[in-house]
Each structure stands twice: as structure tokens, then as C-alpha cells.
Write a structure and sequence with these properties.
The complex is a heterodimer.
Chain A: E1 4-8, H1 12-24, E2 28-32, H2 35-44, E3 49-53, H3 61-71, E4 76-81, H4 86-95, E5 99-102, H5 107-126
Parallel strand pairs in A: 1-2, 1-3, 3-4, 4-5
Helix pairs in contact in A: 2-3, 3-4
Chain B: H1 2-32, H2 34-50, E1 56-62, E2 68-79, E3 82-91, H3 92-178, E4 181-187, E5 190-194, H4 196-202, H5 206-209, H6 223-231, E6 238-243, E7 249-261, E8 264-273, H7 275-321, H8 329-350, E9 357-359, E10 365-367, H9 369-372, H10 374-378
Antiparallel strand pairs in B: 1-2, 2-3, 4-5, 4-8, 6-7, 7-8, 9-10
Helix pairs in contact in B: 1-3, 7-8
The chains are: A alpha/beta, B alpha+beta.
Chain lengths: 127, 379
Amino acid sequence: MNKKILLVDDEEQIRIMLKKAFSQAGYLVQCAASAEETLDILEKEKYQVMFLDLKLPKMNGVELCRKIRKDNPIGVIYAVTGYASLFELADCREAGFDDYFNKPVELKTLLKAAQDAFDKIERWKKR
Amino acid sequence: MKTKLQYTSALMPAAIAVVIMVVGFYSWKSHNDYEKGLIAQVHQLMLITAKHSNAGVKIRNDPYYHHEKTITAFTPISLGEDFWEITVTEPYAAVADPIHKNAMTTFGFAGLIVLLFAAGGIFLFKTQKEKAVLEERSKYVDEIAATAEALRRYVVEIAATAEALRQSEERLQKLSEATVEGVALIGNGKILASNEVFARMFGYDFAEVDGMEVLDVVAPQYRDLALKQMSSSNEEPYELMCIKKDGTTLPVEACGKAVSYQGRLVKQTALRDLSERKQAEQERIRHEKLQGVLEMAGAVCHEINQPMQIISGYSDLLLGEISKDSSIYEDLNILKGQVVKMSEITDKLMKITQYKTCEYIEGRKIIDIHKASKEMEAA
């Protein structure tokens, strides 16, 4: 089974770089630049592992996570943010993020997170 | 006037009693001449019954009665042409004793009445006198009672005035204690009187303050200002720094006003402790500054972390692609190491919780990122 990852970031260079990194690691990567685009993609295709930037135009990452969680309680959703205050982090927990990473984050950390996510989903599926 | 009337009314029965006694006396005296009386009485009787002017009575030692004393009543009566004389003779004792007894009874009865009247008169006199005395006394008692009542009212009034004064004093005391301002009356550079708040503000006992030199509680650099304000008629509030008993400083807002106190013009000065206000003001400034710093830090983190993520990511990708023996491997590693250092700085920027500065160049200050985020790291 192909391991699909959805990357959401409004910064194009980051999307390109991360897509390259995850692809090299063997994942199938889909990118989106906004919340609206993400929701369109998810309507057509299901993703279980997602990396969302918190600061997005219009709808932010926290709101996007809430919407995704309504239809997908099991999927693993990570927040990747350039800056988050303590209150925003509390919101992240409440919105349903599994974990968060501060930019700049090492690629190996993100790759490990992706691996852990798929392991977790695998465990859930076995039950 | 009333008393005189009472005396008169007491004397009246006494006078009557005296008259009766006089009558009694004469009655007794006539009893001694009862013979004359007896004759007169019988004669009178004869004159009435016989209706004849020659009727009479006489007493004599009658030979027909063994020369005992007899009483004879006689009266002539005409029977046709003849005149007859009817004579009745009885032993004197037989007529005199009942009459004598009767006279004695009358006398005794009169005496008893006199005694009764006399006793009554005396009793009445005494009673009236006592009554008069009692009334006189009661008049004095009334007067004394009225005076006592007036005194009582006066005492009650004084007590009420004293209570009102006490309450007024208590109210003033409470008001004085309730105020947040320290108030002092200052004359000739000395504190003449003050409230407890004033003493408390400076850490003195209430009794210590009165008589103190006012400049003793003013910080040296503010003494000229204090002197100038005390001698001017300015009633606008001004700020100055004071010194407490323990030597620490106390920022206050002072407001002076000329008032009359014990016949002379003094300066009534109200002091408001500004410590809390100043502290709150500083706290507000620090908070505002911190808010500004946090906003700036947020912007910097967000904007810098994005390109840093790209540099870091591509460094990782490149390091994975080239051999460790390559001449640029180490250079790339250094590049990535610098990104890590930069990320440590932005990480600290994100953890700033307080406003801390450090000296930079020529007195300029910059945010001390390390100290400002220290507590967060420790936590």
C-alpha cells in the first residue's frame, strides 16, 4: 500500500523542498497552498497523514484541522509553524493536532514523525 | 392668704366653745342661787297658770312641817264675790332636789358639749395647722421638685450634648481614618497636627509626628520645591519624593491650602501615596513594552523561520545526496549548524515572557533575549 502524505503550506519553496524530501523517503506526496485547496483534495481523496502550516491565508491551520477532524478522527495531523504562542498551541490541542513542530525543523525529525504516524495508523487498523 | 383663712376657720369653733363655756359657767353660778331661781321659776309658773298678778312663791321654815324648809306657791282666785287663796306647800327638798338634779344634768351636758367643742376646736386647729404646714412644705417640695426636674433636664441636655460631641468626634475620627490621604497642619515649618494616615504613610507612630520639622520627611532634592509650595498660595497638586522613617523613599502627591488654626494662618497639606500608582504605571509601561516585543518577536520568528526552514531543508537534502568525503560536505554542515544557531535565537524569541533589556552601545539598550526567555526555559 502506498503511504500518502498531504502537505499544506502557503510558501511555495517549502512545499517543493518538503515534497522532495518525503518523496525521496518513499512517500506519495500531495501539496496544497491553502485550506480551501486542502478541503477540495480531501473531498476527492483520503489522506491519513497530514502536515499543516498554521499560518494560511483566509482559513488558518487550526480551523482547517477542526474541519478535517470531523470526517477523520483517526488520521494523524501535524502542525508545522513558524511561530505559535502558548494560546495557539493550546488551540492546536483542542482542534485535534497530534503534535507540532517549530520551523526550522530538521528533515529527519519530520520523516520520523511521518513514520510514527503510519505505524500508529497501522496499529489502529489491526484492532 | 390661704393659710390665714385656714387659721380663721380653725379659730371659729374655738370661739364658739368659749361662748358655750361662759354660758355653762353662768348656768353653774345660777345653780348656786337655785333658790332664787326656783322661786322665780315657780313664780313664773304661777303667773302663767293662775293668770293673776298677785300669785307668788315663798320659802320658809314651816311649823307645820316641823320647821323644815318648805316652798309655798300661792295665788288668789275669785269665787263670786269672795276672794280665795289657793296655797300649795311642799317640803323644799321634794321640789328642789329634782330641779337641782336637772340643773346639774344641764350643766354637765353643757360642760360635755363645751369639752367636745373645745376638743374638736383644738383638733381642727391642730389639723389645720398641720395641714397648713404640710401645704407650706408641699409648696417647698413642689419648688424643690421643679428645681430638681429643671436640673435633671439640664443634666439630660448636657449628656445629650456630650453624646453628640462624642459622636461627632467619633465620626470625624472615623472619617479621618477612612481617608486615603495623610493630612497635616504645617506652621513655621513644623507639623502642628496630623491624622493617623499621615503618620502611617511615613512609618511613624501617631504621637511622634506632631512637632516634627516638615523638611525631615522630604527628600533633599525636593526640599526647595516643598519650601516654595508651602510659602505660596498655590493650591494645585504637585508631586514630590518624601523619606520614610526607615529611610526609604515615598512618592506622594501634595496639595496645600491656607487655613485658620488656633487663631493663626497655617498650611493644611494633604498627601496621597503614589507608590502603588507609580508601580502600576511602571507595570503598565513594562506590559506595553513586553506586548510590543512579543508582537515584534512573533513577526520576526514567522518571517525568518520560513526561509530558515528552506535553507535547513535543502541543507539536509544536499547532505544526504553528497558523500561525506566531498569537499563541500563540511561547508554544508557548517551552513546547517548556523541555521540551527539562528533557530535557537528565534526559539528564544518565541519564549519571551518578560521585558528585560541589556546595555548595547553608547547607552543604548536592546532586549536581552536570553534573560527575557529565561523563566520560560526554567519552567
